[in-house]
Amino acid sequence: MRAVALSWLVALLVAVGTVPSPALAVQPDEVLDDPALEARAREISEGLRCLVCQNESIDESNASLARDLRLLVRERLVAGDTNAEAVDYIVDRYGEFVLLRPTTGGWNVLLWAAGPLLFLVALGTGALYVRGRARAAAPGEAALSEEEQARLRRILED
Prior knowledge:
The structure is a single chain. The chain is an all-alpha fold. It has helices at residues 2-18, 35-46, 64-78, 83-94, 108-135, 146-157. α2 crosses α3 (64-78) and α3 packs across α4 (83-94). The longest helix is centred in the last third of the chain and has 28 residues, at 108-135. The chain is elongated.
């Protein structure tokens, strides 16, 4: 009984130890002394994309470029930038792709609207196709010509 309990405990510890933690990405030497500035830096870092990993924020990524971006955000905050100014500085350097949640203004409106618009076009096309198929006349059986009927009779008589 003890062996089973011990094996479950070991399995639990291994499972908990292998779960990735976003807090592990930020190195201790990156953390700012001021807790308010550090909280702002974390908030900004959660909204910026790691350009190497692409589906992780720089706060979660262990890539060296993500570390550089985290340090850059902290430098900008220490220099006195607001959150918006720090984000704008990063976006000016790396483009809007660095944002995990892109803006919905400018040309991005076209990108945001393209999916729903294409869905509506496909839905309309499908409806027109089904409607056209419903209105189409059912193909009737073509009657045999006199020559075909005579040939059929000869074949059946043989």
